[in-house]
Amino acid sequence: MRQVPDDYQGMLPWKLVFYDNSNVLVRTSMSGYTAINRDTEVSINVLQLMSDKKASSGKVNWNLQKDEEVSELLEEVPGFDVTITSEKVSAFISGVMSDYSINKTDYSDDSAQYYVNIYNAVSAELKKYDMVIMGFGDNYTFGTTDTSVAAGMADEYANMASAEAIRDYIEDGNSVLFTHDSSSYINTKDSSVSGKSWYWGYEFNKTLRAAVGLDRYGALREYYYDMSEDDDIPEALRERYKAYYDVLNDPDEYQYDTLTQPGAEGVTLAGREGLTKYTVVRYMRRHLMNLLADYEDRASEKVTISGETDFYFPVKNTLLASALYKPSGSTADLSSLAGNSLLGTYADYEVDSESGARLVATMVNEGQITNYPFKISDDELKTLTVANTHYQWLQPDMEIDRDGDGKNDIVVWYCLSDLDYDAKEQKYADDGSYDNIYNICPNDVVNNYYIYNMGNVTYSGAGHTEPAETAEKKLFINTMVAAYSAGVKAPGIDFKNDSGDSIDSVFVMYDSSNNIVLGGNESVNVKLEANDYNILSGMTGIRLEFFMAVTEGTAGAIEVSGITDTGAADYLLPISGDSIQLSVSGGGALLTCQTLTDDNSMDGYFKADYYLVQSDVTYDADISLDMLGLFSISGDEITDISEAASAGSVIVRATTIYDSGNKYTDSSISTLSVSVAELFDLK
Fold first, then answer.
1. What residue ranges in 195-342 does DSSP mark as E strands?
2. Are 194 and 205 in contact (CB under 8 A)?
3. What is the pLDDT of residues 487-514, one digit of tens each?
């Protein structure tokens, strides 16, 4: 059972299951959705990072901030006040560097520190947003490769450090929606290899692809290992590569498929990029054979192949090499490709996408994305016409199970399944048949995905061209709301009085005539309640740490993320379990205070001994008066109010631990001020 928080907005899916009392295997069920709309609104601050490269022939970035229809549709969404800021990646990075006073020329002798400072600045800036959208433009470039651009935007460190910051924004559980052509098949910027004077998707492929579920065979893991061993880069950066390699190589965090040779059991192939089959088709058509006509027109042609290195493809895929490349001077017979039903009669990218044809996306699964806040009609749900677009380049890892719940993390909602009727009508063969790369295998979730999500990450295939149909824009808004809802939020934490009301201060009543504190000299008693409404797999509990606000120079004083860096206090003293004790309210047993160790400090984030508590359970907290320093004490007896004491501030930091103890959410804090009130002498 889960309590719905008072400020919850959005949709709740539900399912009722009815069992036969005499045989529980006999059962029936029904499912549905309930929208919860409050009188208040949840504010969502969204950052859209647009590509720096506009594609050719009229294709432009879809600027969500300037789209009036999107704004009007967002106003119809109940319970949400959405603000979108849209800017190009280079402008965003340049603005961050300016705001945080990062000048490239200041780091001529320390490039690693330049990288780290950009990463830290971008990470801090991203915290201002509830959600990041990457894309809605063809050939997404992360920053720019134009060396004439000012402010060092062509510098690889600026682009890569920013992409790494977004990667960790994702890894921390924040909501990210990425779109068409954010990724690519390009893994080098060397034009002599790629055959292009520009590149796209490179930074994404080298930082983000695993975090969004597009690293089926562990290519990024291999890359990070190689970089961590590369003596030509600064040691500080190699350590960063090593740290993320350890994450990618942790079987509890990431799992990968194994690429084996068909018909040869146990033979593992080295090609690990996980390209979609249509990326390979496009490669054969446009890069290897340079055939721009139908296969039937060139069925008898043979192509001389002089060696693997003569053919440019940004991914040197040995699977392709073993299948297609022949020894120098020999020939590759392409006749077997003619009319191959696995490729489709019109398998070429030029025919199906560049013609400007709209496509049909069909529903694979039904859920929030298809129902809230806009109910897509039944007909549109089944066959939604979308603006001209095309397949993507990398296959998702459908086997990944990062949360360890025994279920696949990736859910595909829509797939590209056909050209729309008007486009098909012009391309039927003489016998009336028609095959294309989509309808030969409809709802192919590995190769034709159009919308999928993996926890707090959502992918949308829109962006090759700007959507014109209202239905597609409604589906996008549904996708955006679902992506936001999937983000991991910080838990809540409150000190409370006996009536259950939240409090931020409490008075200790002191009888100076008798030197006693009403209620006892040992401790002050309050109630404490944490709540977490995330739906997280592998949730182990809410971790509570206690600190006392102290002055500079106090022995043992430290700074703590989420407290001292927000101005809640300047210096803190960790409080041990001897000074604060928790028990379940109403006479429950004392909880065990866990000792802070290197193993459970989680990268040094946690700073104090802690209690693990559960959501929506009220606890009694006994806070030691001795620890607060409010009184002068001789032995065990109070002698007077301490001259140095005006009030003691106890701060609790709450953080939800999930993914079977491997991850933690952002934290929230609550502060309790404890003051002394002296009784009047009425004699």
1. 302-304, 331-333
2. no
3. 778 888 999 998 889 999 988 777 776 7
Q: Which residues contact 612 (CB under 8 A, 6 or more apart)?
A: 540, 541, 542, 543, 544, 591, 594, 657
Euclidean distance between the first and the last CA atom of the chain, given in angstroms as a whole number: 56
Distance CA 220, CA 315 (A): 13
What is the CA angle 45-51-55, rounded to 5? Answer: 140
Q: Tell me the HSE value of 592 on the side-chain side, using a 13 A CA sphere.
A: 3
DSSP at 121: H
Helix, strand, coil distribution of the chain in percent, nearest 5: 25, 30, 50
The region, left, alpha or beta by phi > 0 then psi within -120 to 50, assigned to residue 659 is left
Return the closest-CA partner of residue 611 out of 635, 586, 577, 650: 577
Residue 440, H or E segment = none
Report the largest interatomic distance among the alpha carbons of the chain, rounded to a whole angstrom.
116
Q: Which residue has the tokens 């409809």?
A: 442
pLDDT of residue 335: 39
At 651 the three-state DSSP class reads strand
For residue 639, give both structure tokens. 């002698």
Helices (H) and strands (E) in the chain, counts: 16, 27
pLDDT given at position 407: 83
Pick out the chain residues at pLDDT < 50.
55-58, 147-154, 286-355
pLDDT value at residue 293: 34
Q: What does the alpha-carbon distance between residue 284 and residue 15 come to, in Å, rounded to a whole number? A: 48
How far, in Å, CA of 276 to CA of 438, rounded? 12
d(Cα 435, Cα 340) in Å, to the nearest integer? 10
In terms of phi and psi (left: phi > 0; alpha: psi -120 to 50; beta: otherwise), the region of 22 is alpha
Quick one: pLDDT at residue 13? 81
If one counts every other C-beta atom within 10 angstroms of the C-beta of residue 287, the result is 15
